[in-house]
Amino acid sequence: MPSILLFQAKLQEFLGRSDLDKHLDADEAIVLGASLHAANLSDGIKLNRKLGMIDGFVDEVNVLRVILQARS
Question: Which structural domain, as residue segments, surrounds residue 62?
Fold first, then answer.
């Protein structure tokens, strides 16, 4: 079973749901992330505060490990 499907199955089990909501459009997520990152880097855009962002890759196994540890 691919890791994404395994993660989704474990998340469904954790949440006690038979189906997960999937409202995230990948194109919109990429554009929004790039826009927020550009705003953080820009001197021309005045923000009240820096937006909290982490640049990196979080794999499903580590996220699942954190969820399972929180349950116990």
Answer: 1-18+56-72
